[in-house]
Amino acid sequence: MSELEALHRRIVRCEKCPRLVAWREEAAANPPRRYAGERYWARPLPGFGDPRARVVLVGLAPAAHGGNRTGRIFTGDRSGDWLFAALHRTGFANQPTSERADDGLRLRDAYVTAVNRCAPPGNRPTTGERDNCLPYLVAELRLLERARVLVALGSYAWDGALRALRDRGVAVPRPRPTFGHGVEARVGGFTLLGCFHPSQQNTFTGKLTEKMLDDVFARAKALAEG
Hints:
- The protein is α/β, with parallel strands linked by helices.
- The chain has a single domain, classed as Uracil-DNA glycosylase-like domain (Uracil-DNA Glycosylase, subunit E), CATH 3.40.470.10.
- The chain has eight helices and six strands.
- The protein has a six-stranded mixed β-sheet with strand order 1-3-2-4-6-5, sandwiched between helices.
- α1 runs antiparallel to α5.
- The longest helix is centred in the middle third of the chain and has 17 residues, at 127-143.
């Protein structure tokens, strides 16, 4: 077993945050009608992707009826539909869809993870819940030895990525870089790249378009290969 696989097993067993444990299990016990009868994962989610990835995508947390249901980050919800379609268009994924953990999806040179590993009520983890989970992201960044580009999907992920890099021993610039779509910040040997989160709130309103998402991933690829 690799160190990354061992880390994944530790993440899945985590019960540090009682509120999140209760919420992920409540979501599984009372699914919406469209998922009635499905067996939910209802545990923390490790990252997913290429262990030799140079590009790491960081999200907020699993969705209650997305990753918390399917057992894979960004899988089985509308945000994931946008995310993996864009990763496929830009050459990071072998297929454009991510519907379940055994659907054959493979990532090339990309790894997808999140600041928090359990679905939080209202998509709002507390600062304590963030801090409980952050060491897992720090450990992933240590074990993903080829990682050079971090794509932060939203301001929460941007902040979490900076905190994880700091805790990994990387010097974070002062003043602290501010999130924005397409913003780049050099942080030690990494480039942090900002991207609006592919949530329905952003995609339905046109705040984030397919081209905007593709442009970010194309830039991430260029930075990783440069």
